[in-house]
Amino acid sequence: LSNQRSSLMNIMSGQCVFGQKKHLFFLPLSEKKKKNGPKSLRDLRAERQAQAERSVLVSCHPKTHENKFLKYLSRHGNVNKCFFYESFGTYAVVEFSNQDGVQSLLESAAMPSVSHESVVPLRSRLLSLRNVNTVDTDKQSAPSRRTCPLTVFLLTQLEQQIVSLTEAHSLTDENTRLRFLVCSLLNDIAAAYFPQSSIKPFGSSVNGFGKLGCDLDMILDLDGTSEGNANMPRSGMYMEYLVKRTSSERAVTQSVLSVIAGCLDQFGPGCVGVQKILNARCPLVRFAHQPSGFQCDLTASNRVAMRSTELLYLFGELDARVRPLVFTVRCWARAHGVTSPIPGAWITNFSLTIMVLFFLQRRNPPILPTLDRLKELAEPSEKCVLDGNDCTFTSDFHRISLETNTETLDQLLGDFFEFYSTFIFNRMSINLGRYGKEHKPELHPLYIQNPFETSLNISKNVNSSQLERFVTLCQESAWLLQSGSHLNTLLLPSHISVVRGRKKRKSQPASERIKGLLESLRIKNNSNNTEAGVT
Ligand code: GTP
Ligand code: MG
């Protein structure tokens, strides 16, 4: 337990502690993965979900004595895993080896007795550890949090820097467990209305491209409908549920989400700032889950987004260079304001990820196969049509053979910037489906085809000045990499002299801009050296 405690990370700020992760991998597929194949997202999700269902989340005193806590828990059952984190207080995630442990702990828990307030008597797996008479703490066991120093970005080779960046910011095992646990806790509330419901995470929490601090996207699956209706016989009598009917699936989604939102708002422990955004293309409920610190988006009947998550996960597992590259590009984009947490005319992380995957499909030889190829490789049992869209592709890693491409991550990062510096955005679209240049079917500045709803452009919100800014940043980043710059140079906005006004930019010749860049780098380096006492 103390090892687990010393590997504490600050989930909220994305800071992490050393000594946890193994060093990365540049082989296209590790030997183990080649032999067994990576786990499918479906299996991985089932495993995580089962862990979450036999777990509880406990608010604790910051100096809780770990061994005494563990001893107390073991009276209720075998503890598989226990770790602490901080988010508006100290919390422990406790996973029992089976449900009995959880039940026993819940049965022993008391309702708080308060004199001047009233409580909503909802018994959930979100608990608070109390101690009668004594404040039982242990000064020695306070977690030692060592945050990643910035110098990690000043290491030797660019490739190593990319790996360090990815390692420092990607979701940890603990953070992923907590995400599944939050889904499971919220599902306990939804299940009061819909006993068969299940809340599942999707998006970057599970697609492998998640960064510490990213939002938690969830889908409320009311009766396992996304898995298909298995009870329908071919002939003869059968039972059907007598159900209420409404005008459209959208109307059902809206009314269900509205009820769940009200429930979370009024009774949901730890759920604050609940907003119903029911008129969006994809209706959702947005709220903050305070004990975990996650910003949550809950949707329903968003099955295509689940499938996109599976596709992105598959691409991320196919080659070990995919994730670090996507990660670096996403960090670079965030550092320069190409992406933003506020909705607007910016490129989104989802679009940016598709742009990286598209680029990797166009290497020679390709690093990733096209979606059409993955569709051809699918078994009949993998056929999948959702809301009228063909979402078929194989998830079987053994069926996908990849060509040998030995390009290094630094080559790929430089070429990514080069590729989009010269991409003919006004005529071409970005499409994961097939090889061959695709002409744009409409006039939006950036056209990225939705992988499954193929008549939709996922980047139609992007305006021409945002696209132009992206292209300019790509040009300058490509140039910086060619001139041997470190990753930190690329990630610091002050090092890239993107002139925001278009007129000013056009009136300055490229040679002048490059001279300006060199000059600013020289000045920066000199000041860094002086600050560090290097003469
Ligand atoms: P971050 O939250 O920024 O880390 O990335 P994310 O991939 O989770 O993106 P986001 O939270 O914006 O969206 C969650 C998921 O919804 C994505 O992974 C996609 O599967 C899906 N999604 C997001 N934007 C779009 C879009 O414009 N069109 C479609 N069809 N799906 C989208
Ligand atoms: Mg997200």
Q: Helix segment count?
A: 17
Distance between the termini: 48 Å
Question: How does the overall form come out from the CA principal axes?
Answer: globular
Number of strands: 11
Helix/strand class: alpha+beta
What's the average pLDDT?
82
Major sheet attributes: 5 strands, mixed
Amount of helix: 25-40%
Report the β-strand fraction as a percent range.
Answer: 5-15%
Oligomeric status of the shown chains? single chain
State Rg: 25 Å
Q: What are the low-pLDDT stretches, counting only 5+ consecutive residues below 50?
A: 1-30, 135-156, 499-511, 520-535
How are the strands ordered across the major sheet?
Answer: 5-6-9-8-7
- SSE succession: HHHEHEEHEHHEEHEEEHHHHEEHHHHH
What ions, cofactors and ligands are bound? guanosine-5'-triphosphate, magnesium ion
